């Protein structure tokens, strides 16, 4: 099969977008589908708690750590090839994961899947940016963002349905036909593109970025469990920060930087990146607590808890494609700030047990949350991509994806830690209940419910009530923090995000970067 000519590539641009959305879907679904399979994996592979955590974290750390490198390689060596290679690796490693016979084999497979995902995710957005222009690009990014939100629903629901009929390996095996379909269609409809400038690689910058991002993410993820003052966490965070500083120094002094940090001089690029980071901080942190609330406090099954997340995705799928039209009418600043205020209102309602325990009222609040996310993420993503030259789309996309992953990991870690501290303090002494059970209650609500099963019915209800009250009270504090973070994001957007893009942003940016580069490089 041969790639279409440039004219044919333009004519087939919406088919290209369809292929990119299929490729994106496999990543979005994989981020959520695994959660419902964890109990089955524990039962079948006898995975310990630490191994279970690494089954999730191995993918996240490798994926996020490689994003900048993968985006840069895609720009310089060819985006279509990077996408195809990422899909192939993801499919092969998914098949291996589905047949894993031990926790360590599954952890290794998940880490390799992270490599494939790191090439797929940023490449979809960089190809999109080089395929569409102007208003069509904003519209295409809105659809891209909507499909990304679709994974929130498809993952838990698809995983629940698969596990009703098949083993846990099916949640990995389902990736294989999707990847094959996307790869074959990509050979037909995805045009070739790469950075028309200097194609020289930056191996030192790549190595430093991988070490820095991996170290920081490892410390952030391990902090809540190992303790923020533990040597391993402090070493990972300190080492990651030191290597990140070295990376930034190197990128300002090498002739061919992987990530030209002068991009951050652009207020549109920096403000949008900060907004994405803060928004996903609140999104991941709040979703982490809300999912547990559904299962532990309200007693929903994993499948029903997954269904309860559907309104958020519906809101995103409705809001994201409509955001470009609103931007044309009101401007980027107003739409993004308006979206963030909707998210803040929804988050403040998340703290109400009365509202969130109602299927109807809670569902409406989650739709509102999703709408706000859609109105925010699509214009912010377009601002990041639209502020860079098309040749740097891969790196720009990687920055966009890295901010999402880092913000999300920070959200779960920080908001989770604030919640845990409040929960431990909120659990009171329970008269007549053994000390060993009370220790379990103070540890977490999940352990409280397991320990309570060994008690008489009256004491079970007592333990359940104490744990539920402590969880809801702690949830209120955590959601208040998340709401505050969203309000900070709204301020950042209002203060620094330009209302309109420059008339010719690409040429302006290229001239600025060329001038800065000429003065800084030896």
Give an overview in words.
The chain is mostly helical and 522 residues long. The chain folds into 2 domains: 1-200, Up-down Bundle (Growth Hormone, Chain: A), CATH 1.20.1250.20; 259-522, MFS general substrate transporter like domains (Growth Hormone, Chain: A, Up-down Bundle), CATH 1.20.1250. Helix content is 82%, strand content 0%. The chain has 22 helices and no strands. The protein starts with 5 loop residues before the first helix and ends with a helix. Residues 1-5 and 504-522 have low confidence and may be disordered.
Quick synopsis:
The protein is an all-alpha fold and 522 residues long. It has 22 helices and no strands.
> In angstroms, what separates the terminal alpha carbons?
44 Å
Classify the beta-strand content into a percent band.
under 5%
Shape: globular
How large, in whole angstroms, is the Cα Rg? 23 Å
Tally of contiguous helical segments: 22
Oligomer: single chain
> Helical content, roughly?
over 70%
Q: Which superfamily, in CATH terms, is the homologous superfamily of the largest domain?
A: MFS general substrate transporter like domains
Uncertain segments are 1-5, 504-522
- The number of strands is 0
CATH-defined fold name of the largest domain: Growth Hormone, Chain: A
**How many domains, as an integer?**
2
Average pLDDT works out at: 84
What is the structural class? mainly alpha
Order of helices and strands: HHHHHHHHHHHHHHHHHHHHHH
For the largest beta-sheet, the strand count, sense and barrel status come to: none
Determine and state the CATH class of the largest domain. Answer: Mainly Alpha
CATH-defined architecture of the largest domain = Up-down Bundle
């Amino acid at each position: 099969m041969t790639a279409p000519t440039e004219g044919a590539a333009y004519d087939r641009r919406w088919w290209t977008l369809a292929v990119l959305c299929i490729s994106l879907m496999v990543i979005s679904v994989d981020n959520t589908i695994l959660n419902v399979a964890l109990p089955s994996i524990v039962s079948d592979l006898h995975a310990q708690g630490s191994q279970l955590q690494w089954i999730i974290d191995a993918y996240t750390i490798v994926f996020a750590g490689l994003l900048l490198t993968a985006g840069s390689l895609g720009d310089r060596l060819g985006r279509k090839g990077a996408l195809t290679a990422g899909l192939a690796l993801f499919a092969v490693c998914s098949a291996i994961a589905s047949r894993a016979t031990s926790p360590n084999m599954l952890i290794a497979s998940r880490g390799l899947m992270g490599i494939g995902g790191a090439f797929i995710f940023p490449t979809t957005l960089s190809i999109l940016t080089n395929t569409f222009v102007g208003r069509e690009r904003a519209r295409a990014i809105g659809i891209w963002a909507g499909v990304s939100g679709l994974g929130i629903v498809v993952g838990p629901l698809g995983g629940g349905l698969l596990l009703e009929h098949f083993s846990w390996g099916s949640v990995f095996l389902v990736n294989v036909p999707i990847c094959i379909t996307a790869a074959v269609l990509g050979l037909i409809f995805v045009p070739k593109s790469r950075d028309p400038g200097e194609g020289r690689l930056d191996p030192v910058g790549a190595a430093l970025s991988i070490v820095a991002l991996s170290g920081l993410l490892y410390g952030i993820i391990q902090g809540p469990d190992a303790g923020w003052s533990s040597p391993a966490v402090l070493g990972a965070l300190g080492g990651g920060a030191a290597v990140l500083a070295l990376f930034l120094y190197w990128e300002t002094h090498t002739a061919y930087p992987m990530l030209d940090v002068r991009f951050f001089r652009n207020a549109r690029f920096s403000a949008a990146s900060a907004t994405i980071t803060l928004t996903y901080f609140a999104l991941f942190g709040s979703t982490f607590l809300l999912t547990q609330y559904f299962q532990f406090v309200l007693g929903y099954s994993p499948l029903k808890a997954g269904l309860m997340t559907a309104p958020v995705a519906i809101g995103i799928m409705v809001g994201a494609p409509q955001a470009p039209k609103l931007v044309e009418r009101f401007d980027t600043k107003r739409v993004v700030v308006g979206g963030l205020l909707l998210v803040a209102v929804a988050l403040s309602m998340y703290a109400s047990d009365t509202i969130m325990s109602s299927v109807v009222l809670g569902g409406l609040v989650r739709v509102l949350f999703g709408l706000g996310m859609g109105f925010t993420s699509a214009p912010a993503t377009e601002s990041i991509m639209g502020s860079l030259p098309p040749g740097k789309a891969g790196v720009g996309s990687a920055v966009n994806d890295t901010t999402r992953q880092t913000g999300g990991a920070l959200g779960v870690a920080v908001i989770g830690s604030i919640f845990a501290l409040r929960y431990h303090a909120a659990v009171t002494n329970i008269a007549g209940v053994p000390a060993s059970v009370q220790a379990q209650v103070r540890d977490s609500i999940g352990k409280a419910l397991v320990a309570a099963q060994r008690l008489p019915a009256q004491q079970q209800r007592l333990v359940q009530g104490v744990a539920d009250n402590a969880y809801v009270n702690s949830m209120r504090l955590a959601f208040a923090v998340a709401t505050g973070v969203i309000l900070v994001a709204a301020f950042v957007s209002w203060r620094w995000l330009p209302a309109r893009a420059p008339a010719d942003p690409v040429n302006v940016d290229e001239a600025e970067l060329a001038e800065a580069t000429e003065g800084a490089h030896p």
